[in-house]
């Protein structure tokens, strides 16, 4: 008998969406459990071993951001995808700050959902390494996920560190968004529409500026991608 691809928990209070997501995931070979309540969803995620948690933002008793933050604290390696309202960029940014690996915006296509699920599961537990890097007086610590300059320290997400490491390994050439989606996010279909790269770059650049206002490490090459230029 063929084993399921992965075990997924869906925390969603809309019965139709919850049932639909479970049906789609089961049809595609996953095991899918559902919880309609935030606190119950958190309890289930903490009590059992899930490969991925699909987490709605608006939930009764406890919102998705609070659940994501607590899950990330108690299960650092837990893969989490946030489900946000379409166009709610603040929700997306807050979700990433809470520790989400990715997001899908309602309404979403089944193809988009499955691409994101497969990508997050593929990269879950995988990263560029626990490297130590230093640019423009800023030390990037991949083991402890923080960057520091003098007395100032900024916490980094695993994805932010992976971006720095990947750009560092490919210094002085342009790295496209598609390449980052393939090599850092591990999307099998890197042509899918997503603002994940833009949002992560925005956050990472802000942290770099907070550490050293004169440092402009990551340059955007319009229409092509990004390049790490530590000497500029």
Could you tell me the strand content as a percent range?
A: 15-25%
The Rg value, from CA coordinates, equals 18 Å
**Biggest sheet features:** 5 strands, parallel
pLDDT below 50 for ≥5 consecutive residues: which ranges? none
The structural class is alpha/beta
Q: What topology, given as strand order, has the largest sheet?
A: 2-1-3-4-5
- What general form does the structure show? globular
The number of helical runs is: 8
For the residues shown, what is the average pLDDT?
Answer: 87
Share of residues in helices: 40-55%
- What's the N-to-C terminus distance? 58 Å
- Order of H and E elements: EHEHEHEHEHEEEEHHHEE
Question: How many beta-strand runs?
Answer: 11
Structure overview:
The chain has helices at residues 15-27, 38-47, 64-74, 89-98, 110-123, 158-169, 177-183, 196-211, and strands at residues 7-11, 31-35, 52-56, 80-85, 102-106, 132-135, 138-141, 146-149, 152-155, 218-221, 225-228. With 232 residues, it is an alpha/beta fold. The strands form three sheets. A five-stranded parallel beta sheet has the order 2-1-3-4-5, with helices on both faces. The protein has a four-stranded antiparallel beta sheet with strand order 6-7-8-9, with helices on one face. A two-stranded antiparallel ribbon has the order 10-11. Helix 2 (38-47) runs parallel beside helix 3 and helix 3 packs parallel to helix 4 (89-98). It is globular, with a radius of gyration of 18 Å. The termini are far apart.
């Amino acid at each position: 008998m063929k084993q399921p691809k992965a075990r997924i928990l869906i925390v969603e209070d809309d019965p139709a969406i919850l049932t639909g997501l479970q049906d789609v995931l089961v049809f595609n070979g996953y095991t899918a459990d559902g919880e309609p309540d935030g606190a119950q969803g958190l309890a289930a995620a903490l009590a059992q071993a899930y490969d991925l948690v699909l987490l709605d933002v608006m939930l009764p008793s406890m919102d998705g951001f609070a659940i994501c933050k607590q899950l990330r604290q108690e299960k650092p390696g837990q893969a989490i995808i946030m489900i946000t309202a379409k166009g709610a960029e603040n929700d997306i940014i807050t979700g990433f700050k809470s520790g989400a690996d990715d997001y899908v915006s309602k309404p979403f296509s089944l193809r988009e959902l499955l691409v994101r699920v497969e990508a997050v599961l593929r990269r879950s537990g995988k990263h560029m390494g626990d490297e130590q890097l230093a640019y423009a007086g800023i030390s990037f610590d991949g083991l402890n996920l923080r960057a520091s300059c003098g007395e100032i320290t900024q916490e980094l997400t695993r994805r932010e560190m992976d971006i720095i490491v990947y750009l560092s390994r490919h210094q002085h050439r342009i790295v496209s968004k598609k390449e980052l989606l393939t090599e850092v996010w591990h999307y099998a279909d890197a042509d899918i529409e997503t603002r994940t790269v833009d949002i992560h770059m925005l956050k990472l650049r802000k942290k770099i500026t907070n550490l050293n206002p004169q440092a402009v490490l990551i340059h955007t090459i319009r229409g092509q991608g990004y390049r790490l230029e530590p000497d500029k």
